[in-house]
């Protein structure tokens, strides 16, 4: 595993007016750049989902049946719409399967892009990079440990907790709520953190930078 040695504050280049920088002088990313990169990644993963969603048993047919029954109930003047969790639509297991596949695809996507290029494709499109904390000039390939920690605490853990609502395990609703609150707090943390780190950045000891040029 490579050893990264950042510059000290004495020999770090000065970036006038760019805001906080790493210890070796590379500008840290603002919160809105993170949001834009996440949106781009979400769109990309949504495009990938087009390939596997039709292959999930009962998903498309169940949605079609549900929508037809919902429209019939609405046009007939009935005030009661069918429940999407009704067993006749077979959607509960189909939605759980889709969520598990989405989680697996997202984990593989993040692992490959961070390991090989130090950024997801959405981050690359915005000119961003993920680096070890305070080492903005580190090589592009992110080491295995921070990649794994970012996957666990940014992609895997919150998604797994949110999936609890689609299962019958004990305290499923509580777990889903915890997952939602963690996701919100994790995403917002970088907005006020002096090192502009999210919670998963702190655990993985990473920062996101936007190198000049």
What does this structure look like?
The chain has 213 residues and is mainly alpha-helical. The chain has one domain. 54% of the residues lie in helices and 4% in strands. The chain contains 7 helices and 2 strands, in the order ααααβαααβ. The chain has helices at 31-52, 59-75, 91-117, 121-125, 144-162, 172-189, 199-204; strands spanning 129-132, 206-209. A two-stranded antiparallel ribbon has the order 1-2. α3 (91-117) packs antiparallel against α5. The longest helix is centred in the middle third of the chain and has 27 residues, at 91-117.
Key features of this structure:
213 residues, mainly alpha, two-stranded antiparallel sheet, 7 helices, 2 strands, 54% helix, elongated
Write a brief caption for the model.
The chain has 213 residues and is mostly helical. The protein is built from seven helices and two strands; from the N terminus they run ααααβαααβ.
Give the secondary structure arrangement, pairings included.
Elements: H1 31-52, H2 59-75, H3 91-117, H4 121-125, E1 129-132, H5 144-162, H6 172-189, H7 199-204, E2 206-209
Antiparallel strand pairs: 1-2
Helix pairs in contact: 3-5, 5-6
Helix content: 40-55%
The Cα radius of gyration reads 21 Å
- Largest sheet features: 2 strands, antiparallel
Tally of DSSP β-strands: 2
**By helix and strand content, what is the structural category?**
mainly alpha
């Amino acid at each position: 595993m490579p050893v990264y040695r950042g510059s000290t504050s004495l020999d770090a280049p000065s970036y006038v007016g760019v805001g906080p920088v790493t210890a070796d002088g590379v500008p840290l990313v603002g919160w809105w750049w993170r949001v834009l990169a996440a949106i781009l990644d979400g769109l990309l993963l949504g495009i990938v989902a087009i390939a596997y969603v039709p292959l999930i048993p009962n998903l498309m047919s169940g949605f079609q049946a549900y929508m037809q029954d919902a429209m019939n109930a609405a046009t007939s003047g009935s005030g009661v719409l069918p429940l999407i969790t009704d067993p006749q639509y077979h959607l509960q297991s189909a939605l759980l399967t889709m969520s598990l596949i989405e989680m697996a695809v997202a984990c593989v996507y993040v692992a490959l892009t961070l390991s090989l290029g130090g950024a997801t494709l959405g981050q690359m499109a915005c000119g961003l990079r993920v680096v070890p904390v305070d080492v903005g000039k580190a090589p592009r390939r992110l080491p295995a440990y921070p990649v794994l920690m970012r996957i666990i605490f940014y992609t895997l853990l919150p998604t797994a907790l949110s999936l609890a609502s689609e299962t019958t395990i004990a305290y499923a609703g509580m777990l889903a709520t915890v997952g939602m609150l963690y996701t919100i707090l994790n995403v917002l943390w970088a907005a006020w953190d002096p090192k502009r780190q999210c919670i998963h950045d702190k655990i993985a000891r990473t920062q996101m930078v936007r190198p000049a040029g």
